[in-house]
Amino acid sequence: MRWVFLYIILIIGLSSIPGENISEFKWLSEDKLLHLIEYLIFGVLVTRALAFRMVQQVRIFLIVLLIAGIFGALDETYQNLIPGRESSYVDWIADLIGAALGSLTYLRWKLYRVKKAAD
After folding, report:
1. Does some domain include residue 35?
2. Which residues span the domain enclosing 105?
3. Burial, 108: exposed, middle or buried (Cβ in 10 Å; 0-12, 13-18, 19+)?
4. How far apart are the C-alpha atoms of 68 and 97, rounded to whole Å?
5. In this predicted structure, what is the pLDDT of residue 102?
6. Domains in the chain: how many in total?
7. Quick check: 69 and 3 in contact, CB under 8 A?
8. What digits encode the pLDDT tens for the residues 40-76?
9. Is the dihedral of CA 53, 117, 43, 58 positive or negative?
């Protein structure tokens, strides 16, 4: 769980960069792709944290989507408070897609490892 909280701090830190300073970071030019990648990692970390406590994969996946949806909405709302930044429901959708892909990737990898260990 510690990695999830550290990653949340990183996301908030990135969201706190004023809009006029973002152009200095050339790698921040593809906004939607960055949202997807950022939340893909978030989805992996949250799924990993929950997978140690829960067994049912569908439940884990739905909880990850709920957490990512709430946190993504809060993050987008927070960005409205930062000068030169704006929020977008399209960014939020990219967040959700990224979290879903991250969660599914981790769950499939874990299932593969379990099957491999059983062989």
Report:
1. yes
2. 31-118
3. exposed
4. 10
5. 98
6. 1
7. no
8. 999 999 999 998 777 789 999 999 999 999 999 999 9
9. negative
